[in-house]
Write a structure and sequence with these properties.
Layout: H1 13-36, H2 40-64
Helix pairs in contact: 1-2
Length: 65
């Protein structure tokens, strides 16, 4: 079963700004969520999510420069 690559969405500047804002909000909330999580598996999943959010923000900011 082969999956064809999906076309990339074309977003306006305002839409990209919203994406960055949402990612920044997620980045701000994840550390507290990680701290309050009781299970190590979920904590590790949230850490991976935080890493992904930070990576996306770095890439998006790099495109804007």
């Amino acid at each position: 079963m082969s999956t064809a690559p999906q076309p990339q969405p074309v977003l306006s500047e305002a839409e990209w700004a919203l994406v960055v804002e949402l990612l920044e909000r997620e980045r701000g909330e994840l550390p507290a969520e990680i701290h309050h999580t009781r299970t190590s598996a979920l904590r590790e999943e949230l850490r991976r999510r935080l890493d992904m959010v930070e990576g996306l923000l770095a890439r998006l900011r790099g495109q804007a420069a």
